[in-house]
Specification:
72% of the residues lie in helices and 0% in strands. It has 476 residues and is mostly helical. It has two domains: 3-134, no CATH class; 139-474, no CATH class. The longest helix has 26 residues, at 255-280.
């Protein structure tokens, strides 16, 4: 970070991070630019934190370049070793390039820069206080637990059996599986939470669709559609979608409210967007060959074991705000899987931990971006608020956008609808836009050469995003 920013941060004189909104000078009637300038003057560290965050966002668009460079250097080193009759040796430089090319670690790397900047500006105690008291990591821990639970053999067997019956209506062809997964899994997210729906949907798409080698256009269109559908599909209840969770308690939104205000619109948007892509790619979907059926014993799980897994998921969802309870339940779950190992697959914690690390780093950055997001939201009209929330979601987790909206006391019912509808509509535009997206990226990334391209994902998600926007706005 530029030395000038550090000197500005040191001059701020306040170790309370983030700065409470009521500590900024009152700017009633002032323009947005004046408000932002005044907040930078009140605490220059705001600018430093946002510059670091911008660097992290830019880095996410460069991960593919790092990955390609690492692969090219690895091939060159391997060729050189073979020519010399030697075995290739690990290279620190190549491994670091691979590390910089992992989208899950990008915000974590820049979070280290952020913490270092806080330490230089305010000291270690201020950094420690911010990380311990200024940031809530409950959602990140919850996602790790729910991803692990949802990716177990009994839950996948149950989900696959349910979707198989639906896909059987279309003869069990890949196109029927594609439709079933992209419509049913996102709506199921309103019951089992969006992270669980994303995990199950991505895992089944990997086996029933991506393994068949679809074209690049169809692969990215499917990924974008999955991300958008999951983002809006969790809005039928008040506990499943992270951006809804943030507002349900402060605004008094319950499941009947979500069903009446969002449920019908979300379902219609999912059906229309999926039908559009199905029609656009119908020939290719129809031409995909069904995968070889797997042996039944792999997925054969006794009913009582499945019921216990469902109970663990229910416990985690009900207690999603209480880490001590759902983490304690997770420890019991690990013991249960050990006792029933013959009906389990080995538990792979790496994808879930990477996603949790991603979200924890994202919220570490995001809590220091409220100084500009809050006045931006407050300055917008209802329709402008919808699109402002949608666009801000592309560079911030949408749960952060809705959380910051709860801090604006002047929002009326229609404005509250606009900000939440915009946040969930834009939840598929980027990997960082919605908390479950990194789970889908972690599961499906291996099916994309050199990883998932942010621009190609944006293109794939654009049509379903526009459909959702039209439906949510058209109902008002």
């Amino acid at each position: 970070m530029p030395q000038s920013l550090l000197s500005l941060a040191a001059a701020a004189g306040s170790a309370v991070l983030p700065t409470p909104f009521d500590q900024y000078p009152p700017m009633a009637g002032a323009g947005l630019a004046a408000v932002l300038s005044a907040r930078i003057a009140a605490n220059p560290f705001n600018l430093a934190a946002s510059v670091i965050f911008l660097c992290a966002v830019v880095h996410t668009f460069l991960v593919q370049r790092f990955a390609r460079l690492a692969h090219a250097l690895q091939e060159r080193e391997a060729e050189r070793a073979r020519a010399a009759g030697q075995a290739p040796e690990p290279s620190f430089r190549i491994e670091m390039l691979h590390f910089f090319g992992e989208v899950e670690v990008v915000f974590g790397l820049w979070a280290l820069v952020l913490v270092a900047a806080i330490m230089l500006a305010y000291g270690w105690e201020a950094a420690q206080t911010y990380l311990h008291e200024g940031v809530d990591y409950t959602e990140a821990v919850f996602v790790v637990v729910i991803m692990t639970l949802a990716s177990t053999r009994p839950i996948l067997a149950l989900a696959e059996a349910t979707l198989r019956r639906i896909a059987a209506l279309g003869g069990g062809a890949p196109a029927a599986w594609w439709l079933s997964i992209l419509i049913v899994s996102p709506l199921l997210g309103s019951l089992i939470t969006e992270p669980a729906a994303m995990t199950i949907g991505a895992l089944l798409l990997a086996r029933q669709f991506y393994a068949l080698g679809p074209s690049r256009r169809l692969a990215y269109a499917t990924l974008g559609l999955l991300f958008v559908n999951v983002s809006i599909g969790g809005t039928l209840t008040h506990f499943a979608a992270p951006p809804v969770l943030m507002v349900s308690r402060p605004w008094g939104w319950d499941t009947p409210h979500m069903l009446s205000e969002f449920g019908g619109n979300a379902t219609i948007a999912i059906l229309i967007a999926t039908a559009l892509y199905f029609g656009l790619f119908f020939r290719e979907l129809r031409g995909l060959k069904a995968p070889e059926p797997q042996a039944a014993p792999r997925w054969a799980v006794p009913g009582p074991v499945t019921l216990v897994h469902v109970a663990f998921i229910a416990w985690t969802v009900v207690n999603s705000h209480y880490p001590a309870l759902f983490v304690g339940g997770f420890l019991f779950f690990l013991g249960f899987t050990r006792a029933t190992s013959r009906h389990q697959d080995p538990i792979d914690l790496k994808p879930a931990l990477l996603v949790g690390f991603f979200l924890a780093a994202l919220v570490t950055h995001g809590n220091l971006q409220g100084w500009w997001i809050e006045p931006v939201l407050r300055s917008l009209g209802e329709r402008s608020l919808f699109f402002g929330s949608l666009l801000l979601t592309a560079v911030n987790d949408n749960a952060l956008i809705t959380y910051l909206a709860t801090l604006v006391p002047t929002l009326g019912p229609s404005f509250k609808y606009a900000v939440v509808a915009g946040a969930v509509t834009g939840g598929g535009l980027t990997v960082i836009a919605n908390a479950p997206n990194p789970a889908g990226q972690a599961i499906l990334g291996r099916h994309f050469e050199n990883g998932i391209s942010p621009l190609a994902l944006l293109a794939g998600a654009l049509v379903p995003t526009l459909v959702a926007a039209a439906v949510f706005l058209g109902s008002r």
